[in-house]
Amino acid sequence: MANNNKLKRADIIFSTYSVDPYDVLDMAMKKGKTDVINELIESGLRGRGGAGFPTGLKWKFMAQENNEEKYIICNADEGEPGTFKDRKLLVDVPRKVISGMAIAGWATNSKKGIIYLRAEYNNLIPALEKEIEVFNKYASKFDLDFSVNIYSGAGAYVCGEETALIESMEGKRGEPRNKPPFPIQSGYLGKPTLVNNVETFAAASMVCRYGAKKYESYGTSDQHGSKLFSLSGDSPKEGVHELELGMKISDFVEEYGDGDTKAVQIGGVAGFCIPRKEFDQTIIGEGNTTGGATMIFNSTRSMYNVIHNYLDFFAEESCGQCTPCRVGTQQLLKGVEAVKAGNKPESYLDDLVKLSKTMKLTSKCGLGQSVTNSFSSIVKNFREEMIY
Amino acid sequence: MTKIEQLVNDLTGKYGKERKSLMPILQGIVKEKRYVDNTDMVHIARALDISAADVYGVASFYSFIENNEMGKYVIRICKSITCEMKGKHKILKALEEELRIKLGETTHNKRFTLLETNCLGLCDVGPAMLINEEPYTKLTPEKVHEILVDYRNEVK
Amino acid sequence: MSKINLIIDGQSIEVEKGITIMDAAKKINVNIPTLCHHEDLCVAGNCRVCVVEVKNHERLEASCAVPAEDGMEILTNTAKVRNARKDIVSLLVSEHNTQCTTCYRNTNCELQDLAAEYNVDGDRYLSVLKPNIKVDKSSWAIEKDDSKCVRCQRCVRTCAELQHVNALTVSHKGDEMKISTFADLPFNEVVCTNCGQCVNRCPTGALTERRYFDDVWEAIGDPDKHVVMNTAPSVRVALGEMFGNEVGTRVTGKMVTAMRKMGADSVLDTDFAADLTIIEEGNELLTRLKGALVDGDTSIKLPMITSCSPGWVKFIEHMFPNYLDHLSTCKSPQQMFGAMTKTYYAEKKGVDPKDIVSVAVMPCAAKKYEANRPEMNSSGYRDIDAGLTTREFGLMIKQAGLDFNNLEDSEFDSIMGQSTGAGIIFGATGGVMEAALRTAYAVVTGRSVPFENLNITAVRGTEGIRAASIKIEDTLPEWSFLEGVDLNVAVAHGLKNARVIMDEVAAGTSTYHFIEVMGCPGGCIGGGGQPIPTNAEIRAKRTKAIYEEDMSKPIRMSHENPEITQIYEEFLEKPLGHKSHDLLHTSYRKRNRY
């Protein structure tokens, strides 16, 4: 493959329109539905929200659902601290996102598209509505029966989880559902529903634009295409960067760090915190995926403060329905406080790490399941900072 | 018909009376008056033919649907990690001093409410805050002062 | 139904497709623990205590929520599973008020059982119990103590799914998530019907009935007070469960002895008042039928709907306030009993009614509310001074040190202690209807209902709504207006079904003349004051016991109860007479729906 673990910039998603994304839609429609879906499968594109499910396969399942009423939902509820790429996409290239949604709608015979936009991004609505108007003109020109509407969230991180998002859209508390059934079988209003991240739709549109072969040529054998990284923290180059996958963390830090990097949080607070001694690994290992939120911490940062901030966030943003997540997040928070204050022995940290593993094993959704990632990596690698 | 009944009526006219209309209706009220109090919830419950407890359960879940009386301008300062690293505490202090209220409080003249919130998705341009729906980034105490002056003078 | 094969703990098993792992495990006698699952309710999957290992699944799965699939290999008892369960129970304990010794549910608590089973170490985690939680004691019927809540949401699902009341909800999120009423208002200010079904399903002491037994002990200990106790029909088929008896054991005789030994001055039977209710309500129905069918009086509302279930009465007051005219004006048996105690009984026994303390032992939480309704004092005294649940009564027997299972049987005192099978069957859904039909048919035609052994099986059963039609033929001359009439009746139990029935009434499409509604699933045998647990199997066994008790009675029609004849001769004069009107009938009030 093209990438030899070096950092490479890519210019796909944010490239200026040499071809209007709505013409990409037209191109796709000329190819035929099965071809488009197969191409997507071939491209190896995986969901860009973080879970990394193969996008083509998801679309294929959706296409197989026989129902008059099917929904395409664009998950723009990016609430992961450290993530802001979707905002940039919606500001800079909304047309690529909407064309991706429309391709999905057309390819899977779904007529309704909804952008679930987090409340924090409400100021983007007027511009998005204008873009939707433009789309509507194209749609009528192509005779495409697909509508796009915006649904505004109301401030709940957990609604980024697709079934919680659907519950929220149905006018309920954003509590994740039991699975099965999956949204593809029974989603919004009990109808087949395909939920993809903002970036995934934009990327899907680009796969249609360039073809699977070209798209596949970016990245590694396992991670095709480009990936957007939301970079923040102790870096002179904060912002969204489109990179090929496969680079080492050391390369990334060399390019983006401030020369004093002590740790990198990869995948937002739900991801892993990698200490300097482990920078010699690829930023996303084989089989792993990321939403692309990357935070750089330099040596002036207290990792205790970092994990405390994360845990505070989790304890507040857990939906609260399942025990391990609701109580576990509180216990981890209180636990690190107690160790720091000397009210619990150092060894209590090990108990807490075990607890976080139980949370991973038993929580109902990704929120509770992923807390252990940052928690155990920070406690393991920065143990002294947790105690003294 | 009271003002709020009229508003609920307008909102159900626009979004419908099904359960799925609940969120847009709650948000419509927030847009109008910044918070949804108990009386409002009863009106919504009646309009959608669901229980008031249901409305309360949903409304209390979402941090942008406040139950308590809010000022005309709701300031939400981001407390997530990168904004904290970039000096959120200084900004909060500046806001508290400028507005002479503590976090969670509303000014006497009901113009400003000061809250914290989780990640605003503005991590690369922190510290950040929202005033109602408008984001403000790369805040400094001086900048906070200027912004508030604008709001006080109703420039915004 | 297609079948699938899977392996649980090494044992192959064939099950119907679609059942959960938990239910599949039950079939090979593996009990998987749970706190949130309840067979009456939809799947929640939120306590996570029921996790199991599924081969090739990275994480543990909640067995209550995940369907068994063909070829699955499941392990329910591995170190991984046990450790996870222990951790989860420990977490629940860490947010729990662990003052178990002072808890009403002590020794009958599902969290306590699990904590014991997994030998949970109380110091394993820090306490995250919220400080300063106040117990809501505002309601006459139900207490809510959030410090004991495990957030399983059984109560919320009960209130929504079974009862369509939605007085309870889950509010807030994360560490603030809790079970709330609307705006966290006190229970007495919200749409709660006091049915107590939430109490019956609460795994811990978070929701309990308000207790009045100390007041009763005080009255018993007071030599100036004359304590009259009466027990509802369904108590005698459930009380035994509190003393380790098999579900469905009838303990009528022992129950009577226990009350006497506890020191009650008089041990009487609510069933007597049930028979009295039938006379009044049956006559009210016939009067309404005549008014509506013969006189064409449009102010008379049909269908007439029963009013003996106080949870149901409060439900209709909240939810259908414009249809209160459909309710029978008859007080419930409990309140009729109370009113007669303070008047007829007092007169006969020569006791000053002010000294009488009337205690009702009920399968019900709402009866406490009903007893406290301000209008329930038409004799000048409270009809009922204290309402107890079956559970409270069981506890009192224990407090009294009585070896319940070895008590000899004894008979109710007289007067107002004699009852018929018709009074007994009030305890099960369809029972009031059946009792009413037995009497009304006999009154109108002079013959018994045309069913074998008087058993009107069409109105029995567990279906949520059951309808029947009875043709009235060969009437006695004074009832000739009913000749050939098909009397359409319906029975509903559980407030969810009551709503369905009422939606029809409100839409004007109801074709029934008479409807029986019971607030609780299964009727009183499944009441909110009955022993915990209650589920479909237990309800079925208690129901069976009710009908056995009916069959065991020499008299099975209310109007043949000699004490009923006597009370009309000596005191009430005639059904729907002016004394009846004053003492046995009541009115209802419109309440706020939201």
Structure description:
- The complex is a heterotrimer of chains A (388), B (156) and C (594).
- Chain A is α/β, with parallel strands linked by helices and 388 residues long.
- Chain A folds into 3 domains: 21-216, 3-Layer(aba) Sandwich (Rossmann fold), CATH 3.40.50.11540; 226-298, Ubiquitin-like (UB roll), CATH 3.10.20; 303-387, de novo design (two linked rop proteins) (Up-down Bundle), CATH 1.20.1440.
- Helices cover 45% and strands 14% of the residues of chain A.
- In chain A, the strands form 2 sheets. In chain A, strands 6-5-9-7-8 form a 5-stranded mixed β-sheet.
- In chain A, a hairpin with a 5-residue loop joins strand 7 (261-266) and strand 8.
- Chain A is globular.
- With 156 residues, chain B is α+β, with helices and mostly antiparallel strands.
- Helices cover 48% and strands 12% of the residues of chain B.
- Chain B has 7 helices and 4 strands, in the order ααααβααβββα.
- Chain B has helices at 3-15, 22-33, 38-48, 52-61, 81-85, 88-99, 141-152, and strands at 73-78, 112-117, 129-131, 134-136.
- Chain B has a 4-stranded mixed β-sheet with strand order 2-1-3-4, with helices on one face.
- With 594 residues, chain C is α/β, with parallel strands linked by helices.
- Helices cover 34% and strands 13% of the residues of chain C.
- In chain C, the strands form 5 sheets. Chain C has a 5-stranded mixed β-sheet with strand order 2-1-5-3-4, sandwiched between helices. Chain C has a 4-stranded parallel β-sheet with strand order 11-10-13-14, sandwiched between helices.
- Chain C starts with a strand and ends in an 11-residue tail after the last helix.
- The interface between A and B is large, with 51 and 36 residues.
Describe how the helices and strands are arranged.
The complex is a heterotrimer of chains A (388), B (156) and C (594).
Chain A: H1 21-31, H2 33-43, H3 55-64, E1 71-76, H4 85-92, H5 94-107, E2 112-117, H6 125-142, E3 147-152, H7 162-169, E4 193-197, H8 198-210, H9 212-216, E5 226-233, E6 239-244, H10 249-256, E7 261-266, E8 272-275, E9 293-298, H11 303-317, H12 323-340, H13 348-362, H14 366-381, H15 383-387
Parallel strand pairs in A: 1-2, 1-4, 2-3, 5-9
Antiparallel strand pairs in A: 5-6, 7-8, 7-9
Helix pairs in contact in A: 1-5, 1-8, 2-3, 4-5, 5-6, 5-8, 11-12, 11-14, 12-13, 12-14, 13-14
Chain B: H1 3-15, H2 22-33, H3 38-48, H4 52-61, E1 73-78, H5 81-85, H6 88-99, E2 112-117, E3 129-131, E4 134-136, H7 141-152
Parallel strand pairs in B: 1-2
Antiparallel strand pairs in B: 1-3, 3-4
Helix pairs in contact in B: 1-2, 1-3, 2-3, 3-4, 6-7
Chain C: E1 3-8, E2 11-16, H1 21-27, E3 51-54, E4 61-62, E5 73-75, H2 79-94, H3 110-117, E6 142-144, H4 154-162, E7 169-171, E8 178-180, H5 197-201, E9 207-209, H6 213-221, E10 226-231, H7 252-262, E11 266-269, H8 270-294, E12 304-305, H9 310-319, H10 333-349, E13 356-362, H11 366-372, E14 386-389, H12 390-399, H13 421-424, H14 431-445, E15 465-471, E16 486-493, H15 495-507, E17 514-518, H16 536-552, H17 562-572, H18 578-583
Parallel strand pairs in C: 1-5, 10-11, 10-13, 12-17, 13-14, 16-17
Antiparallel strand pairs in C: 1-2, 3-4, 3-5, 6-9, 7-8, 15-16
Helix pairs in contact in C: 8-10, 8-14, 9-15
